[in-house]
Amino acid sequence: MEKEELVYRTIPGGKLADSPSFVLQQGVPVKVLVGAGGAPAAAVTLVSPTGTETPLPNMAGTLEGFRGFISQHQFTPAQTGQWSVRVTGTGGKQYGVVVARERSPSVAMDAGLEKSVVGSGEAVKLSAYLYDPQQEETATVPLSKTVQYNTLEVQAIVMQPDGSLETVDLHDDGADGDEQAGDGIYTASYMPRVREGRLPILIYSIRDGHTQLTRNITQLRVTAAAASRLQEVSSKPKAEKGEFSALGDVRFGITANVAKAGKYFIIAYIDDKSGISVRAVHSARVQATAPGKQEFTVTLERDYMARQKDALPLSVKSAILFVINGDDEDSLDKKEFNEPIPYEDASEFEEKKLQFQGVQWMELKDTDGDGKNDKLLVKYRFIAPVGGSYDIQASIGGASSGVVQWHHSSVRDAGAHDVEMAFDVHLLRASGLSAFYLRNIAVAGAVQGMDMKSYPLLIGDAGAYVPDDSDASPPLDVKALAEPVPNAAPQ
Fold it and tell me: In 229-283, which residue ranges form alpha helices assigned H by DSSP?
């Protein structure tokens, strides 16, 4: 048995009964391990609830150097009840008993009504299935097939207004409203016997030898008024391109014809490309002031769509219409739509952001030929993720304040752009600053963004650039840039 759970074990050093006992379940494989060191003459017998005895052989000969009794017996009980192990001939030596069984899956039941409010003379669909909550649904194994059993009965008990009980059998045979035989989903079509009122309904399951597993209590309301109905997907699923050149939220509309004034909402159920339900999305609540047509907008967020790399394309499988009655939310109608959501590439929803790569080089230059440096040239690089026109601005000044001069320029197309910025040496000198920083770097265009760093422009052995147009000054060498100042606030 690959997965086991402990049924019984003796306590080391504790007082032992001559016949340790434990409860086993019919049809569930178990393993019994008995060991008595230093007692090779011991005899062990497994005893069933009806008294049938099965001697267990001593397997000590298979273990080199072991002197005593040891036995491991694996079997499938034919009866449910109290089993025991009788141990004799130990000569007072301690012995141990361990009983393990195949781990049973934890079992839950999803059960309920297709709608919780029906009109007089309208049938409602009951459904239920068992599942293992520790397993995930896959394309080949739906939740309703994650629990194995030999026999299963699913029933509903309906309490009538007069106190009488009505039993309804749910079935998995592909008939009378059951969609597919053998899919593990049990259904029944139930026609209420009353024209108006509330009917509590208990749905429960019995598996393998009348072992009750779980139950779910719900309530059906029968009304003589006209029924509210879902109608259609009124606006197809669509996402508009937003900032960062990414598709935004996917939105679609579903209309319903409501029978009376009230507050309503819908839940839309989304399937992935394999037909597995992956999302239940609520619409906003809509206040209907009168009977008639109402439209509900449902939104799938951009971030969610961007994460569905292996699930697209999605589809709107179905929707349920709800009305709010005080603290209760009653489901009024369910409708299948199977409306495709026409996006197959999750990367379309990923934000395309600018990449800022900082100052690449700089130099002082004599641009007017008078032998004096009059311009500080700085090359700054950024990468545009998509094509289009981009405007870039930057300033030069102190570390966190004191803008001396602005730069503005434009580039086009996607890819890396080395933007050459020219700053007037005379203005820098007149500022009185001894150190200069490139900052307030912003790019606007098809994608927008701001580089929050400040870049110190360090030139010469002094560690900071000080403008000087003296003819006697030696040439200034461009040194490696220092690390950007991380917390400089843009001005």
Answer: none
- Considering only CA atoms, which of 432, 186, 233 is closest in space to residue 338? 233
- Whose CA is closest to 281, among 308, 226, 236, 319? 319
Our CA angle for 100, 102, 103, nearest 5°, is: 100
What CATH number belongs to 355-457?
2.60.40.10
Q: Where are the domains of the chain?
A: 4-102, 108-223, 230-349, 355-457
DSSP state of 305: H
In this chain, the answer to whether the domains covering 4-102 and 230-349 adopt an identical fold is no
Q: What is the DSSP pairing of strand 108-113 with strand 43-47?
A: unpaired
Q: What are phi and psi of 342, to 5 degrees?
A: -80, 55
Q: How far is CA 120 from CA 117, 222, 224, 320, 433, in A?
A: 10, 6, 5, 20, 86
Tokens of 354: 């600018």
Which CATH number is associated with domain 108-223?
2.60.40.1930
**Cα(219)–Cα(111) distance, rounded to whole angstroms?**
12
CA distance 378 to 397: 13
* Residue 318, both tokens: 């179905």
**CATH, domain 4-102, list 2.60.40.10, 2.60.120.380, 3.30.70.1150, 2.30.30.110:** 2.60.120.380
Place of tokens 């130099």: 363
Phi and psi torsions of 160, nearest 5°: -80, 160
Residues whose CB falls within 8 Å of the CB of residue 206, separated by 6 or more in sequence, listed in order: 152, 153, 154, 155, 212, 213
Write b or e for each residue in 21-32: b if 16 or more Cβ atoms lie within 10 A of its Cβ, otherwise e: ebebbeeeebbb
pLDDT tens readout for residues 139-174: 778 888 888 777 888 988 888 887 788 899 999 998
Query: Is residue 459 a contact partner of residue 371, using CB atoms and an 8 Å limit?
Result: no
Residues 419-441: what's their mean pLDDT?
87
Find out whether 294 and 258 touch, Cβ atoms under 8 Å: yes
Angle at 373 between CA 368 and CA 377, to 5 degrees: 95
Bridge partners of 228, per DSSP, are none
Question: Model confidence over 108-151: pLDDT tens digits?
Answer: 888 888 888 888 888 999 999 988 887 887 777 888 888 877 78
Determine contact, residues 262/285, Cβ cutoff 8 Å. Answer: no
| Phi then psi dihedrals of residue 245, to 5 deg | 55, 30
Contact yes or no for 127/114 (Cβ under 8 A)? yes
Q: Which CATH architecture has domain 230-349?
A: Sandwich (2.60)
- The phi, psi pair for 259, rounded to 5°, reads -85, -20
